[in-house]
Diaminopimelate decarboxylase (Cyclobacterium xiamenense), 410 residues
Amino acid sequence: MEISNQRYCIQEIPLLDVAKKYGTPVYVYDGEKILSQVEALKQAFSGVTMKIKYATKALSNLTILKLMRQAGTGVDAVSIEEVQLCMHAGFAAAEIMYTPNCVDFEEIKQAVELGVTINIDNIPMLEHFGTEYGPSVPLCIRLNPHILAGGNAKISVGHIDSKFGISILQLKHVLKIVQAYDLRVVGLHVHTGSDILDAEVFLKGAEILFDAAREFGQLEFLDFGGGFKVAYKDGDITTDIQDVGKKVSAAFQQFCKEYGKELEIWFEPGKFLVSECGYLLVKANVVKPTPATTFVGVDSGLNHLLRPMMYDAYHGVVNISKLDGPERVYTIVGYICETDTIAADRKLREVKEGDVLAIKNAGAYGYSMASNYNSRFRPAEVLLLHGRDHLIRKRETFEDLLKNQPTVDL
Ligand SMILES: *Cc1c(COP(=O)(O)O)cnc(C)c1O
């Protein structure tokens, strides 16, 4: 978002005009930012065969998936529905990694029939897979290296209490099953959690994965998951993608040499690719002074952006209706009947009723976690690309609230 002609713009398109045209609340995505993030990641790993498997769950709008495909990424899908969405968006089965956890084996069978890469997350499922398919279907195994990473306990998935992956401490057991069923393990996977700070965390995970990989003879790729950290506020430490690229590539090349084969290195970024591209535009319904705080109540809330309440996430907020004038301290809250703080104690240009606020970093885990709580409609989504605005999802209507509820005569 930049200021041009005294207005907040993306690709020279004034955001206020987008709010006016589509109404609020509305999710707006800067497609050029998505493309430049994909490019930055490719650049950082230009020395190795790297594949991006975009984490669909971060933002699963069909048009965004199509944009990713155009940009040359594959996808990581965590449910059979995401697999189907990705195929609908044009991804070939071979470009789709399916990383479920705690699903019924029937869902894994469905994924096998669709031909996507299967990532197995627990030992009973591995045995089940062996009984069903033996060596006939290649697979990937998700390991948990028990590395603590992640800014919040809820998104830290590598620790000892985590439900994700097969513990690295169970490797011997895994190897026995692989041998007993003659399984064709073509990939190993780790995803230690969101918000990885630096190359060191990645390298620690990498070393553990390399050690495990030496036990498997038919590998084609190693998948390091997602978790690259992006800035949510000024001064945030972010993943230095160039530095991670250089160090991890060097370690990976060294490993491939020892392994005796050029493997592919895979990543599954969600936030890195789509967090910063997104803005949730909301309207100030009320400015309400109370003894301790001045609240700005907006026409959205945790039904549309859950992250502040769910993860204590920080999202920058800008009053895009005002370019200058005095700043005041506000707490921005939603219209949901529930404590619903979007941002506490923030300095914004003086807010008047009707002003439009832009909530930043709303691309990842924004719309995809939205609900109809309080029977509110989910917002519209708009993609800005090559200087043009595209409606990529309509705002819901009353019909949508009714549509799966048959009329019952009582
Ligand atoms: C959620 C998830 C990701 C993406 O994590 P980000 O923090 O958004 O990069 C990648 N891989 C798997 C398996 C995931 O569940």
